[in-house]
Amino acid sequence: MADPVASAPKRVLALGATSAIAEATLRLLAEQHATFFLVGRNAQKLAAVRDDLLTRGATAVTNFVADLDDTAAHPAMLSHAATALGGIDLAFLAHGVLGDQPAAEKNYAVAEAILHTNFLSAVSLVTWLANYFEAEHRGAIAVISSVAGDRGRKSNYVYGASKGGLNIFLDGVRNRIDRAGVNVLTIKPGFVATPMTVRLPQGPLFAQPARVARYILRAIEKRKDVVYVPPFWGLIMLIVRSIPRRIFKKMNM
Amino acid sequence: MGNPGSKTEPTPQFESWGRYPKFQSDLVPLHWTADFPLPHAPSTKQLPVGLGRSYGDVCLLENGTLLQTAGMDRLLHFDSATGMLRCEAGVTLQQILDFAVPRGYFLPVTPGTKYVTVGGAIANDIHGKNHHVAGTFGRHVLRFEVVRSDGNRFVCSPVENPEWFAATIGGMGLTGLITWAEIHLRPIVSRKIEYRGEKFHGIDEFFALSQAATSEYTVAWIDCVSTGRNFARGIFMQGDHSETPGPLTRSKEAKLTFPINLPEIALNRFSMAAFNSLYFHKQLGKQKVGPVDYEQFFYPLDAVLHWNRIYGKQGLLQFQNVLPDENGREGMIEILKAITKSGLASFLAVIKFFGDVPSVGMMSFPKPGPMLALDFPIRRDVSFALVDRLASITLEHGGRMYSAKDARMTPQQFQAFYPQWQEFARYIDPGFDSGFWQRVTGRRPLLG
Lengths: 253, 448
Prior knowledge:
- The complex is a heterodimer.
- Chain A is an alpha/beta fold.
- Chain A is 48% helix and 15% strand.
- Chain A has helices spanning 20-31, 43-56, 74-85, 101-106, 108-136, 157-177, 209-221, 232-242, 245-248; strands spanning 11-15, 35-40, 60-65, 90-93, 140-144, 183-189, 226-229.
- In chain B, helix 8 (325-342) runs antiparallel to helix 9 (380-396).
- Chain B is globular, with a radius of gyration of 21 Å.
- Chain B is α+β, with helices and mostly antiparallel strands.
């Protein structure tokens, strides 16, 4: 048996598989001949991702078109994935929306939609997955959260709240199922140059998805709990979190 | 409004490798082959761009919309028996090498940088050190898809829409967006290149070495600074893929980045003479033979990212031409004399004989004969005047210049170099345009 401390998962369920960070990470797993079950909304995009992963060395790829906002459909989809893969080693959650913060400030329905996609749908998926892995006494759940969940900022607090809630939820799940041998990894990317961030002004802090993916894979292999990607964001967020509230509320962040 | 000289223009978000000219434009990253046509058609003209490694304005469009293809970077299929790779057009040659070398395959044709996209390689019908045996990149392209701004999509190959195949290879991105392509890779058994470097003095020795050369890859570095006894000295470099099975590992990533824009004064007659002399004497003996890594042989400059910053913010002017065999010797001597006399040449000058393998593209640059490529720092009046003079000499000798390297050709010169330009123009997407095309069709004046 391979060294459990640093081995790549072989049977991978990817939720939101057409997101740029997910795709970059899946490519690295494909090079190690993983088998994939990919879930996304767009069949054509999923097909391109499947072709790419197969070309790079994936053993097999199954595509499944679904809108992950539909939480009622999660249990059936997840048990189908577990059957199709012959068991799941890694569940990788990568779906999410940045949302329209100014619109969300004025309209609760917009805020609710962001919270539903980024937080509630993830809660639904992780609830099923945690029970699945707990019964298996093995496996890993890796979830893409965000540095935005570390502190509420005026410029994106609805998105931040969805990720902050997710972080707390994952902390709790980890504390529950770690003893069953299940790893729960919270991934906190900073700025990554992806379609989601295309409207933000790009600066030197932006990282390419391929670079971020290498850090994510390493964290998965080492069964980390929480990882900032690229790692320098850990330092940035340490500083951001330590700014006194009376100063922070005057700042334009 | 002040006069133009007093106003500081914001740095454009997208520059070509020569960093001249500088144009403002909108950038739209494409991530999927279905992302184009854009859901909301822009009011401006559009132009697909890859990594911006062409030197002049062929990848620029002032006040236009640049469609950035680098996000379309999926490998779609690979046949390990035949070496056929299908990939999206934003895949870079670096990404192909990282994928293919461990599988025992190599690019069929590569330029001096691996930081170009497949779409850009087709659009400029690039060539490499094996042109005399392999022809241009386009010869190794089996099929691709072109998407027009009206949403029409069609597959092109030598047998499907062959006229669009020919117009798009070397078509400078103007015939529509290339979304994916199939290219034929060549097998290798090792990363190693069996290298042979030989010093030469003067153009006749270079011609003799070229005639005698038997290798798949040939190129020469030529000193364009020294005069007198050292005029046109250089190092003739040959290489072949090693036939001894050896390492097929993936390359490490370049770690060095040229950190700053050097001031204009840094590149001058004296520093360039010193550089050229150092390079010539780096190889001690008359000959040097042995295996080298392919990175070192093909991509020495890629080891330093953003090396164009050596030329400072104002950028550099690249010149590349080819002369027909019959006028080659006389023309090249005239050109080299003009360059050495100017004292403007830099260090990066290469000379090579193109072979007679025909190009597939209607607007492809190579044709049989000697070709010269080098760059100059931009010193407004003097370097522009020099390149304009080199263009005239090229025209007088029946040669032509390379659009991907050019920022100075006049419409008259371009239309004489490429008399088929009007036939090509019929294939241009009505929604597309480029700074180069505006210039060489007389719709934009040459900038001083």
